[in-house]
Amino acid sequence: MMSPLEFFRTLPPKTCPECGEHMEEQAESYMLECDRCLSKREEY
């Protein structure tokens, strides 16, 4: 069985589903899109 630490080390980098750019992951952040794509989105 893989240790939790090894599991998180082997995860692929998080990428934006809109543009494919690699995102800097932050603790307690559940955002899916990068800042650039979020800034383009229209607010409703």
From TrEMBL:
<protein>
    <recommendedName>
        <fullName>YhfH family protein</fullName>
    </recommendedName>
</protein>
<dbReference type="InterPro" id="IPR025432">
    <property type="entry name" value="YhfH-like"/>
</dbReference>
<dbReference type="Pfam" id="PF14149">
    <property type="entry name" value="YhfH"/>
</dbReference>
